[in-house]
Design a protein that fits this description.
globular
Length: about 180
């Protein structure tokens, strides 16, 4: 299990008024400027049933999968989606699951890191990237078939569910500007 899976719906997250973030950087967007590191809202308080459902989905999606592999998948999707909160959260969880610093550091360049990841992990990471970056097109048959060679059908269904779930969490965290370290 991971922190997304185990945090209760009343997990301590700082509200915008009590945030301890000291970030002062701003980014200009098409709608003006907004300070990064400051929450826009606390979704768990404003949509508690959705938050509970997301935790239930997270728990269900990870069942039967290797905990270290699930964290690699979550970190990689979060890197692609630029979700600092989830990268922080799942990097810590990956360490708790036994991941090495070297493997975590090389994750963003896993394709070039020959011999660092197993073929099964590489297939899972390729599928993660294909599902996460749908703007590049559909998930290629070759990527899906590669994953299907390494995962039994039920396990592959769990992996797809895990990838979809972390992408949903990334979108929640990025949109509401969840602050790294506040988990």
């Amino acid at each position: 299990m991971t922190p997304h899976d185990t945090l209760p719906d009343t997990a301590p997250h700082a509200s915008p008024a009590t945030s301890t973030s000291t970030s002062t950087s701003t980014t200009t967007t098409t709608t003006g400027t907004a300070p990064r590191g400051h929450r826009r809202m606390v979704l768990r308080e404003l949509a508690p049933e959705v938050y509970k459902a997301m935790f239930a989905l997270s728990a269900a999606a990870g069942k039967g999968l290797d905990p270290a592999l699930t964290e690699l998948v979550k970190v990689r999707a979060s890197q692609i989606n630029h979700c600092a909160f989830c990268v922080d959260l799942h990097t810590a969880a990956a360490r708790e699951a036994g991941e090495s610093e070297k493997r975590l550091y090389l994750l963003s360049a896993w394709e070039e890191a020959a011999g660092v990841y197993t073929e099964k992990e590489r297939a899972a990471l390729a599928l993660t990237e294909a599902v996460t970056v749908l703007t590049d097109g559909f998930v290629p048959d070759a990527v899906y078939e590669r994953a299907a060679r390494h995962f039994e059908e039920a396990e592959l269904a769990q992996l797809i569910s895990l990838i979809v779930t972390i992408n949903a969490w990334n979108r929640i965290a990025v949109t509401t500007r969840m602050v790294p370290g506040e988990f």
